[in-house]
Amino acid sequence: MSEYLPEGKLILTQDNINTLHSFSLLSDAKKEGKILEARACVCDAEHNLIVDLGIMKGIIPREEGAIGIREGTVRDIAVISRVNRPVCFIITDFAVDENGERFAVLSREKAQQRCMKNYISHLVCGDVIDARITHLENFGAFADIGCGIVALMPIDTISVSRIEHPRERFTVGMDIRAVIKSIENGRISLSHKELLGTWKENANSFCAGETVAGIVRSVENYGAFVELAPNLAGLAESKDGVKAGQQASVYIKSIIPEKMKIKIIIIDTFDYKYNPQKPKYYCNGNHIDRFLYSPEGCSKLVETVFN
Question: 71 with 138, same domain?
Answer without folding.
Answer: no
